[in-house]
Amino acid sequence: MLTVIGNLKGGTGKSTVAFNLAVWLAHEKSGVRVFDLDPQATLSDTAEIREEDGYEPPLIVSNDIEELEALSKAKKGKKAPQIIADVSATNMPDLEKAISLAKRILIPVQPSQADIWSTQRFLKIVLSNIDKKKKPEILGFINRADTHIGVRETGEAEEAIKLLPNIEHLDVRLYQRTAYRRSFSEGLAVFEQDPMGKAAWEMKHLAKKLY
Questions:
Q1: Is 37 in contact with 63 (CB distance < 8 Å)?
Q2: pTM summary value
Q3: What percent of the residues of the chain are helix, what percent strand, and what percent coil, each to the nearest 5?
Q4: Model pLDDT for residues 144-163, shown as the tens digit of each residue
Q5: Distance CA 2, CA 174 (A)
Q6: Which CATH architecture has domain 2-210?
């Protein structure tokens, strides 16, 4: 199944989410195929660091939209690998194509009004590029939530997601933690770098919700 991870606004942490989910799936028996369709190629860079440092399992990343299309349309067996695609508005043709092929669209949303507006615009692009008769699952969740209990923006953003049409709120929060930045720069998933850490628990919770 193809899961597209994206949003219009930069800085939502989509590449970090894509990388961690891909590594989690790579440890599973069915495996994963990963596509980086963002010209910034952050996901590809992290996969290269992982390979250079010899971490297992390796993560092979493609940026070939035609390969993604062929793979997503191929007949799937029980042991077929999951597919993850990291998309960006700076490569709109590939973003739109990936959306048209997706079975699920995962939208990380930062807790701010600007990100809610961006998500609304992204949903319009999604709806204009999908087959309405075979509508993919469209999920939104809070990423980079504030860790301070007194900050209201996270809860307000979650309520805003629930009010948006054509999207389902996924009851998961990933918080703004140094662990995500540090592990990403080292080519490791957060649950590999610190298996007992809070970030590891959050990411495993997201992965299990999805898969």
A1: yes
A2: 0.95
A3: 50, 20, 35
A4: 999 887 778 999 999 999 99
A5: 22
A6: 3-Layer(aba) Sandwich (3.40)
CB-facing half-sphere around the CA of 150: CA atoms within 13 A:
0
Give the C-alpha separation, 80 to 30, whole Å: 6
Work out the angle between the directed axes of helices 178-185 and 14-26 (0-180°, nearest 10): 70
Helices (H) and strands (E) in the chain, counts: 9, 7
The two structure tokens encoding residue 55? 């971490």
Q: Which two tokens stand for residue 200?
A: 């590891």
Q: Is 171 helix (H, G, I), strand (E, B) or coil?
A: strand
Looking at the DSSP bridge assignments, the partners of residue 83 are 2, 33
pLDDT of residue 77: 72
Contact 4, 104 (CB under 8 A): yes
